[in-house]
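Supplementary Data S3. Sequence and structure tokens for construct A.
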Amino acid sequence: MKRFVQDIFFGVVAFVCLLMAAECFVLPKVNKEYNRKHDYLEAHKNDISILLMGNSYFENSLNPHLLGDSVYDFALSSRPIYYDCELLKKYIPQMPNLSVVLFPMGYKMPFWESPHYPENPNINVHLVHEKYFGVWYDRTPEKYLYWFLTYHGGIHRDMYYEQQDSLGYTKLQGQLPDWSLMHNVEQSEIDHPDAKEQVAEYTNYMATIAELCSQYGVRFIVVTPPCSNPYLANVGPYGVSVLHKIISDASKNYPIEYHDYLRDKDFRADSLYYNASHLNYIGADKFAKRLKKDFEL
């Protein structure tokens, strides 16, 4: 029995050692989405003028190539605003030529995306930002659990990466089957018990980013992206009023340039959408041209 326990113990130790070796020496060489975004930003901190932040609304549904020179798409799918705020605290002071931070505020994002509430248990978001961007989750004891998972169990996560291009953009081709149901919104996501607390938290992060941008002479532009007609059928006036109040409250001391494109008449065609709330590459081109014109980028 003693020999059996020893064999198990040494087997576990050997496995952990192999896993850690893979994490340190093998996986960093894999050409992953997160590595590419981190490495590009580190290498071009002095060159970037327009920085796209946020989530899949900008990673997938806005073409940075059409916005002008010196643009980079640093958005990542499913990223909560907490990590945008922390990343900008880290990088804006290091980017002397940065003139614009462009950020998407989706219709339901402020109500449910906070990483601090059980409605958003996307642990992979925390692991990715700790491992590849050096930004830690800010609550204990979870941050220590995420550290352990990040550096001692991340092989399966690292094998996935998007087909992003040289500016960090991953275009969405065509339209999904049952597209009008995919990434739609339900009223329960707007009305759930933690919604008010999450909106307040979102507003504070937005205000912090506005202050940071103002401090370094950077324009902070926020847009609510357009959504399809099937999505808009589930959008209520209360939710829209909350979005506008977030901007009003967050910009009391520092400026935020904002435009709401949610129901914009130029984005009503179904052919522009990959799913209910994300533009495909045709819509992404159209949206980029529109933002460039509206904000004189």
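Construct B, processed identically:
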Amino acid sequence: MTFKNYLKLAVANFDKTWKLVLYRIIVWVVLIALMAPCYNVLKDVTLSVWDLDLFTAFAGNGLFYGVNVTPVFVSVLQVAITFLTTLFTSYTAVGVYLVIVLFLLRPFLLNIGRFVVDEMMYGFMSSHAKLGFSSTFVRTLKRSIPYAFFRTLYCLPFNFAVANAFYGLAMANWGAASLAMPFVFLLVAAIVLSLKQALILGWGPAMVVYGENVFKSFRLGIKAVSRNLPVAFIFSFFAYFALILVALGLGPFSLIVLIPLFEVVSSMFETMFFFACQGMRYYIDKDTVLSSKKLEEQDTMSKVKFLL
């Protein structure tokens, strides 16, 4: 599948963009409602470490503004550590509850939305069907729930590794080379997250296309993506590299816009790439059906073992 066809499919399915964004907003409304009972605790702990000058510096802290972001990151991390220490020491139950809501429930709910997009993209590409988000959400819950649960568990160690890399790099003694820290982090994070993404690009689409359980679909997805693993890694690397670079360049609050945009792009790409890896026919509009390269045309003798 050529870049031109990817672009045509993305434009033809632009309606899925705002639907997924709206779904993410609803998820955040639910999460905020779940965290509302902890408001007084969070307010007290936040006020105990609050530094308006540091917050202002952090909000406008971006590489594109010509500033050295490392000292601000170090200060913010120190405040964050104090915040977490106070929270978990004085309000352990609240801290555990918030971790569950933000780091388990949040990605779980968001991954359900990703599976819905995979299903909608499959409907369009296989039969030019325009599936509704709400109806697809309800219809696929039996499959999307286990997918979202295990995808959340799969992503946790990679995300934890990136967080640890950021902490370790920021707190290291860079001296006069502190300007290099964000660029080293950019490279490390892009590589780690790209490995994570490349291995699961085919997971959701395989589950949608073949209707298998979550574990078999994971294996089928890896086999499919392995047929063109360099492209999967390169796409993932440049997508994450661009995301992190712009976030570092414009400041942390740009992530409010960048992350939903990235999720939409990567969700739609999953199904497109899976079709290409499998040599499947697909619609790009109501009058045009294209064929990806046939499986036997893609294979070399060294790749025969990846046939599904």
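The longest helix spans residues 92-127. The chain has a mean pLDDT of 86.
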